[in-house]
Amino acid sequence: MSETASRSSAPHSTRRERIEAILRRELSPTTLEIQDDSARHAHHAGAKALGGGGETHFNVAITSARFDGLNRVARHRLVNALLAEEFSSGLHALSLVVHGEKNP
């Protein structure tokens, strides 16, 4: 099923749920923690420009074998690329802690 099709089947899902679904599907993580940190950033210009509706800032900690052999920058780029559609639709900031299975 395509990403667009999977989204259309769950139109009322939260951004957090969509982020989790994408990361689980694409990275098969052994650990995944997602924290919505939007409330702490509601006063920032970026959040205000997006309407202040929340779900703009997230902290993500993830461990996946897909990160093995990648440096920190490549790991971050991979996650950001997977979440590109979320960034284009209102995700403003993502704090990442990414670890590989064999080489944290």
From TrEMBL:
<dbReference type="InterPro" id="IPR002634">
    <property type="entry name" value="BolA"/>
</dbReference>
<dbReference type="InterPro" id="IPR036065">
    <property type="entry name" value="BolA-like_sf"/>
</dbReference>
<comment type="similarity">
    <text>Belongs to the BolA/IbaG family.</text>
</comment>
<dbReference type="GO" id="GO:0016226">
    <property type="term" value="P:iron-sulfur cluster assembly"/>
</dbReference>
<protein>
    <submittedName>
        <fullName>BolA/IbaG family iron-sulfur metabolism protein</fullName>
    </submittedName>
</protein>
<dbReference type="Pfam" id="PF01722">
    <property type="entry name" value="BolA"/>
</dbReference>
